[in-house]
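Q: Given only this backbone (214 positions), what sequence would you predict?
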């Protein structure tokens, strides 16, 4: 297996960026770029580089670990799942409420309204389990599956993780979740809107980084 970590990154959170350097796998980082463009760039780059077998989507406000990445790799390679998510807190104020949802999602209603029941930490099983939606809590996706999904977001309104869940549902692909892969979500530490304003003031333009670790 040869994974590529894809990190769409409009923010600069030191605690998160520190964890990137501790993970010995290649990374494609898209900085200061509108979300739709960033996801399309990430998918295009991955599809053009056939040496990579799996894409791992890692939001730039989520602390991740080498153990978590390698656990996802095991779940995909050895257990054969096409996509597996980790878990994370929804935000800092609710550490025990997780950004994963039960299988009772109503996919035709759209995000937020269609989300299934939330899952709290005390409800977690001790093994992999199926979810209806995962908020890209560090999520591995096989090349085979990525060829079939769009990563275009929900009706051009964002919610790229929700659109991915909808398309998996339509394809009959189970979204599995590994409770041993846990990230810490720093949702409130730095707002995307603040970063956009800073970029405009500094006349920054988006750029990409391809970091090769092997």
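A: Predicted residues:
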């Amino acid at each position: 297996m040869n994974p590529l970590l894809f990190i769409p990154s409009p923010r600069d959170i030191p605690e998160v960026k520190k964890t990137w350097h501790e993970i010995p796998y290649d990374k494609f980082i898209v900085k200061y770029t509108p979300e739709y463009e960033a996801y399309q760039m990430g998918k295009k780059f991955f599809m053009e580089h056939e040496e990579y077998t799996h894409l791992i989507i890692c939001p730039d406000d989520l602390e991740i670990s080498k153990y978590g990445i390698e656990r996802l790799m095991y779940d995909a390679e050895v257990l054969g799942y096409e996509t597996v998510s980790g878990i994370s807190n929804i935000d800092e104020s609710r550490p025990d409420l997780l950004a994963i949802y039960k299988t009772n999602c109503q996919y035709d209603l759209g995000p937020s309204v269609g989300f299934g029941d939330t899952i709290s930490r005390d409800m977690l099983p001790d093994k992999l389990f199926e979810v209806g939606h995962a908020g890209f809590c560090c999520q591995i996706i096989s090349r085979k599956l990525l060829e079939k999904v769009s990563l275009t977001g929900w009706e051009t309104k964002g919610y790229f993780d929700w659109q991915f869940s909808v398309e998996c549902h339509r394809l009959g692909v189970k979204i599995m979740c590994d409770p041993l892969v846990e990230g810490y979500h720093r949702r409130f530490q730095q707002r995307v809107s603040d970063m956009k304003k800073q970029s405009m003031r500094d006349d920054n333009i988006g750029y990409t980084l391809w970091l090769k670790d092997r």
